[in-house]
Fold:
Amino acid sequence: MSASTSKLAPIPAGSSQASVAEIARRARAASRLLAKLSNPQRNEVLQAVAEAIEKAMPQILAANAADCRAAEPAVKSGDMTTAMLARLGDQQKLANMPGYVRSVASLPDPLGKRLTATELDDGLTLYKETCPLGVIGVVFESRPEVISQVAALTLKSGNAVILKGGSEAARSNDVIVSVWRDCLGQFPAVPADAIQLLHTREEFTELLSRDRDVDLIVPRGSYELVHFVMRNSRIPVLGHGEGICHVYVDAAADLDKAVAVTVDAKVQGPAICNAAETLLVHRAVAKQFLPKVATKLGEAGVEIRGCPETMPLLAGTPVVPATEKDWATEYCDLILSVKVVADEDEAIAHINQYGSRHTDAIVTEDSKAARKFMDEVDSAGVFQNASTRFSDGYNYGLGAEIGISNSKLHARGPMGLEGLTTYKYKLFGNGHTVAEYSQGLKHFKHRPIK
Amino acid sequence: MSASTSKLAPIPAGSSQASVAEIARRARAASRLLAKLSNPQRNEVLQAVAEAIEKAMPQILAANAADCRAAEPAVKSGDMTTAMLARLGDQQKLANMPGYVRSVASLPDPLGKRLTATELDDGLTLYKETCPLGVIGVVFESRPEVISQVAALTLKSGNAVILKGGSEAARSNDVIVSVWRDCLGQFPAVPADAIQLLHTREEFTELLSRDRDVDLIVPRGSYELVHFVMRNSRIPVLGHGEGICHVYVDAAADLDKAVAVTVDAKVQGPAICNAAETLLVHRAVAKQFLPKVATKLGEAGVEIRGCPETMPLLAGTPVVPATEKDWATEYCDLILSVKVVADEDEAIAHINQYGSRHTDAIVTEDSKAARKFMDEVDSAGVFQNASTRFSDGYNYGLGAEIGISNSKLHARGPMGLEGLTTYKYKLFGNGHTVAEYSQGLKHFKHRPIK
Structure:
């Protein structure tokens, strides 16, 4: 996050005059009210917000243009990259906000879903039902339209959100948050404090200690940002670390499919976390496959870093010798490390040792080999004959994505509305006491209810 | 954990000669093998372990007797309580181990459960399936039979476990772990390192930093132990903190049920986390209900700490005035704080402010009031007309319990085998690439498969 433009953000934000403790307390209070709203009520609010954003689009675009102008000195001085400036000023993404908010409104209700129902005994019935987490803290960089994406998901799932954006987008962020808060304030049952905005990194760092009032922190941004949050939070954090994804071309691979999957996994979005960084090739097909795929990768401008066994097989192609460090590197670029392996076991062991447990694919026509790969590779996504780039909440049909989790707990892989919920056990009795059961006067039935 | 007996534990344990890094690495390797076992294979091992424990029971009881003898000086010097000694030397619990292991074997397979199935497009199908977490670290105090409980649950769920028990139970722990490891070692496909034992607090503290090889830490023991682990772990921790549970007697309560529920919630297991610590009474029924319940509580030896409004209503009963601190205290004893509230909203607000989000009950015949309480109280268990003491994995029909989680993430409330699993997404394609979809040549169908 660039600090150089922070003093150019004079617009006072709704909640930012308050202390962080007060902001967190207000978010908790708002979350209590949100938990009472029905799905039709939440959807009505989202539809109204979408309309309000459309009406306010001229002001939003003007604020965004001001942010971009204010960022120019930082770009000239090298404090901000042109890629960051492009993300900051992406007017198409801002224009897409109302459509996104409406699409979230149309998703199924994630709350009040009955996960299990059990008759413990006569007149004693237990239900496990989904409910909101409560208060979510989200930190993001550069892209102001993220506010509407995140706020739509948190409101749909009955959660309050505290946002912290990049200071370079301060004007855009303030206007967008104001539109949301003003719209929410028009509904008597809906608290405007369901959405609040922090303005400084210090405020956000302080928020990380409010573990009584904040239930989850979601960092969306660079590896450095995610790890800063993980190191400094007393609140649970779900955010992805690295995406070191693999494509393994098995002895029983269809080599045309293998070329298509490898090229797509590397080239179609090289800076995205689900892009492949390493290609593993079974020795039995390496001689035939590697020149074939190298030609296509070369056409797409991909640099190959090969293991000692790869080098002679690609004698006519420029290949950089791979070092140990390559196997553990997320390039985020048109670079692919390539290793020849003796068998599937070596491929699986390599992935479990060097991978980041994100997404890994096998290309094979052998369903037994595919099953083995899927069972033994310890990653959130394990694919047969499909590009690692499919690992995404929209592609998976989750409707929306708050992030991709590398954690094995709570939410793993693409995280949609379900990741913003928890559950509670509701037990209905008729004066039942445990003493009757411990004394053997009554006995549990534990009958599942369909 | 008492350190005074640690030098009296000379039995060398299978794995304890290795460094913690090596132990963690072995556990990870073992977890890879465990993930390949079928449910019948896992059950066969558990049945064999149950038999081996039965055969080894004389040695186990002898080691346990030696532990108890060695602990006598610590009890005399006051370093160890007699309650701890009783837990350490509970021979009935040791004798129950084989039965417990067999009951875990009989539970349904928690692995390979299909959570969702979606046809993303023709020939491109996504499954979300449960799988083991990998490696679990468990620290516990005093009670050596916990080893067999935990090891049965982790093996059943395909996880490797690293255990750390109290030094006062070192001999018992070593013998029990040896029985498990020897039995596992007799199965060619099963790694003995699925179960390993640490011996010192320093080793366990070091384990808390092995976040690459350990997926989850479960502390079972005192509040101090749980919070020590939470403060010092780089690995996710699931353990319960406090259990400040409430019974709220509504205006529409059946007062006989209210007495039964209140007495059971306080008296039936006062040292257990799901016991009630505070009774909230609606003003409309306080005058009638409080003397009634106070008589029964008094008979059970319960000390009452009352709010200013409670005091005159219990003029004939010895009541200690409650202070602000009482509302936030887990007594773990026969003490109950009592507060009269103006309405249900005040009761809910009190619980959300002072409670520990564990389990809270409303006594009422008004189903609307019950629904409101259940929706608005932010706790893992919300009960109508039933004692808070029902909040337990066995009572809930989970079959077994590794602990009770106060976290809202991953596992909330009583945590059975499901809490020891995660999931992965398995995607089956036929050479599918994301480029075809981003270029609009193909379109997702996202059809749920029943």
In short: The longest strand of chain B covers residues 421-432. Chain B has 15 helices and 17 strands.
